[in-house]
Amino acid sequence: MDPRAARSTGYSVLPDGSPDVLGGGRTSNTWRLRVRMADRPGTLAMLAIRLADLGCNILSLSVLPVRGGVLDEIVVRSAGECTRSQVMAAVQRQDCECVGITGADVRELVDTSAAALSSANQAITNPAASADALKEILAADIVTVVPADEANPGRTESGHRAVFGFGDTGSLVARRLWAPFVRQELARAEALLGLLRSAERNVAGSVVLTCEDGAAVVLRAGTPADADAAIALHHRCSAATLFQRYHSGPRMMPRHELRRLLVPPRGISVVAAGGRQIVGLGQVIFEPGSDSAEIALLVEDSWQRNGLGSGLLRRLAVLASASGCGELVATCLPGSEGIRRAALRAGLSPARAVDANGLLRMTL
């Protein structure tokens, strides 16, 4: 705002050129401020006394860890009229730094966790409200959806701008003038968007896969109740298919081994159910202390080269990604290209060659 225009409208202007009061000449009586203070006992208490001298009552307090100390977010309400410059002066007299200050609404004073869950529920119920949910989580001034190639994530504007991936080709750009974003807030935002991605991909439920010939199968988690159908699947598979899967040719699968296939102790199984039959079976096994996971597929011969293998692999990749994995590893026999072709069709990025141990690595 031009200082001359501010004087003509009755605004007082702070050194940074921003008005001292809210729009329409109305002085705010509720402020949200962020204060960097010395880590000394009694500092916060002394600041509370100075704010009390202004007639300000502290409505909420939260501590945001930042590099080299802490940042306190304080919401205060004045019994009378209190300008922003008066609040900032009280902070500075206590030898603290007011990093940011903005007008607040008492309706915003809800538990942080409850507010985050409410925003997440809003976005899951209505995906078009994702930008609004992120705006609430970050207390941002504005959040816009832009194409990913226009987001320019390198431009942070001194921490007042943040970019988040959104969908396959978009980004969410958040901006806030009154205070920079801190790491804890950005972590909350990433957690929200991760939840929305999981909900969009229906990680906990079943999905329908349409094969190239038009046949539809259901991809769902394997259960012990699938044991008989899984045994029948192994009986219908050729020796060559079983050899590619197990690097041996067992037709009889012991039930205790079958249970480990359907309910892996350290992983997830996905079955492809066509009617009452299981026509495909995949597993992802997580490696402790690593962001890698091992995957394996078995597809009935008559369903091969029909898009089922790549569909299973794509679903396993979604589940692995939702669990924090960044790399899939498949054990391949020399000269075998089936898993690599399936990975390419699934949209993954397989290595062009297996390593010395016969492992093909694919990034998610």
TrEMBL record:
The keyword Protein biosynthesis does not apply. Keywords: Transferase. GO terms for molecular function: acyltransferase activity, transferring groups other than amino-acyl groups. This is Protein N-acetyltransferase, RimJ/RimL family. It comes from Prauserella marina. The lineage of its organism: Bacteria, Bacillati, Actinomycetota, Actinomycetes, Pseudonocardiales.
